[in-house]
Amino acid sequence: xxxxxxxxxxxxxxxxxxxxxxLLRRKRAAIRRQAGVDIEIRRIAEREPARxxxxxxxxxxxxPNMQDILDDPDIRIVVELIGGKTSARQIVTGAxxxxxxxxxxxxxxxAARWGEIFSLVERTGATxxxxxxxxxxxxxxxxxxxxxxxxxxxxxxxxxxxxxxxxLTRMEQRGVEFQKAVEEARxxxxxxxxxxxxxxxxxxxxxxxxxxxxxxxxxxxPENIYTxxxxxxxxxxxxxxxxxxxCDLKLLAVYKRRGSRAEARVHPTFIPGDHPLAAxxxxxxxLYLQNDTAGPVMLYGKGAxxxxxxxxxxxxxxxxxxxxxxxxxxxxxxxxxxxxxLVVVPMEEISSSFYLRxxxxxxxxxxxxxxxxxxxxxxxxxxxxxxxxxxxHGVVAIVMATHTTREGDLRAAIRxxxxxxxxxxxxxxxxxxxx
Amino acid sequence: xxxxxxxxxxxxxxxxxxxxxxLLRRKRAAIRRQAGVDIEIRRIAEREPARxxxxxxxxxxxxPNMQDILDDPDIRIVVELIGGKTSARQIVTGAxxxxxxxxxxxxxxxAARWGEIFSLVERTGATxxxxxxxxxxxxxxxxxxxxxxxxxxxxxxxxxxxxxxxxLTRMEQRGVEFQKAVEEARxxxxxxxxxxxxxxxxxxxxxxxxxxxxxxxxxxxPENIYTxxxxxxxxxxxxxxxxxxxCDLKLLAVYKRRGSRAEARVHPTFIPGDHPLAAxxxxxxxLYLQNDTAGPVMLYGKGAxxxxxxxxxxxxxxxxxxxxxxxxxxxxxxxxxxxxxLVVVPMEEISSSFYLRxxxxxxxxxxxxxxxxxxxxxxxxxxxxxxxxxxxHGVVAIVMATHTTREGDLRAAIRxxxxxxxxxxxxxxxxxxxx
Lengths: 435, 435
Description:
Two copies of one chain form a homodimer. The first copy, chain A, has 15 helices and 18 strands. By secondary structure, the first copy, chain A, is α/β, with parallel strands linked by helices. Chain A has three domains: 5-137 and 307-324, Rossmann fold (3-Layer(aba) Sandwich); 149-302, Dihydrodipicolinate Reductase, domain 2; 347-433, ACT domain (Alpha-Beta Plaits, 2-Layer Sandwich). The longest helix of chain A has 19 residues, at 306-324. The relative contact order of chain A is 0.11. Chains A and B meet through helix 2, helix 6, strand 6, helix 7 and helix 11 of A and helix 2, helix 6, strand 6, helix 7 and helix 11 of B. Strand 12 (297-302) of chain A pairs antiparallel with strand 12 of chain B.
């Protein structure tokens, strides 16, 4: 293999495995250009023959035997995507023992076997990365381990399970009870036939185990984490919390360092409505971290899904492939055209809707003249509001919202209107509205 | 020097320089343990003699001459913290030319000299890191460059200047006008005597230049960015936006890829009240990223301040020190005690306030019996609410909020109350409240 080509073996061709293979193949040239390494999928191990019948991947790449991946000396990175704790454990420990680097998204395995896996990492010098094990493609593992390196993470609170956050959001916004919200989550593909892992908090506890182990530097076994789900909650609880206490109800994973010990717990929690976590709705996840130096940091995004999960796996593969190719993992190489600058679209070509505030004299006919000038320049008015009485100088504010309009057209209209000194008394204020 | 010891030179001993030196010295042993490298400050260059008179740092470390840092072969990492674009440029290009790695927080220099700096990086093989140049210690650079590696970042919107976000938050919440809000920001040390760089949007434009260059792979010069500040906004605009459109007003840095070109602009923008960026208040910053794979990702935190800025600088130094010491930058080494697990505090010892919902028969005396049982177990009631009428079975909900209480005490009280089968008809629901 060429020096810059790094061989990868994928174990498990389910939903996430499919996404990883699809993206690695589609983006191969872009990754080579941006990251300076060529990532080649050498083998995909999948036991289920039906899954291997696909037109997009050459059938010669498939093997039913995961041992083929471990035995191939040209495979330097093993990507474990079968899940579970039995075969997955064999793959991860087998690969590390052979000095192969490992990427995995398997939160249950990491949480249950942290000590064993990291003893192997220490002995063999191989590395393991697991960005997708918590919050999928949102880079929380990197942030905790590298971005906040040198920080003492003293506490964190996380919404780490998208299914339960969706259920709680539905219960609050639609006024429905738990069972009905579960059915809606199921219809949207957000939960398994048996939602127990999600709604009883075990998925969040596995993720808390990983984050707590990273934050503390000691293994936090999931069975030591107090874990309470959301089955017993009623819509009334959410409504009461909102009305009486101004609080939102979230299933939180909580970690708080206390001397040599730590609090570690998963349970429904009321948080103040102005806390950044309160704005995390539907199937979104977020992690709010406290530490001794950087100030509070929050990361927010999708915690599940084929492409989000594949995104984190691919970022890990790229980091390890750079190590294999003898480059620093996070070393910023210049883009090819570092001296050619990006062409910026002129503002006149931008389109958005606008908020407009005109300061005019309070006289009949003013509004129709303004509306006429806007119309001439193809600016379409969505709504008009006049507020308050004239000020001491007889000036009133006319406020409008426009439909989407070309900025060049809007500027021309305002130039014309602001030139009417007899009726317009101050420069018109125009503010873009982002939808 | 010992193999694992990496020499660092600091240029500039102002506010951030002070923070970096203080933290590196205080945390030296912890960094050695966690990151596997020993970081030694070999020299601090500072021209201002008054700044060098400090009891905490040996005076022999100081030099007025930054050339001493460039000439010391044992200094492998140069940390530029003087700001400005003249001497800072000499330091950065001088260090890279000598093959030394560079850490900088200098957004203005990076934005103005992107092409020159990265041409040097390409030629010399030295690396440059600049996490603190945007959003201080919040790992946005890493996330964009490494965490989302393999993603095509198609658009982002950022609240990248804390001073203006504080001013807008004040104008909205306190109903004050721009000038008064600026004075409040000044009182809190959030802006310079001349707030122009902040309030006219230039600071945000420099940061947009850096993020846009990273996202596009081409230099986005700040002078090509349309830049509009917040001086012309009135409290009325914020009030109107809220009342009429349900929108919040933010100074946004906007990037949108459009084919081979991109939109790049800084201006006040109305965003819907339920957008994650709308919940970013006061001096906080946030970056909301869109891409082709991971789904929307947001990072949130403090964008300025001595320790937050020092945090990002130190994370960069650690990453480069690992490269110098021959280790992979982001490689996760196991904590020393990977097999000894973290001791978790028992739930009985946790303290928090509680929301309680009792399902009782609708009969006089019930409330006083419940309150009595809580009192016996040292649970202090903050408020009591009874909601609605009895249901078909004659059951009513009594809702309470408690003051902070030991979980063990609360559980004992509820066990007792739930045993009163004649008056309590369902298991009591207890939900923790996080303040």
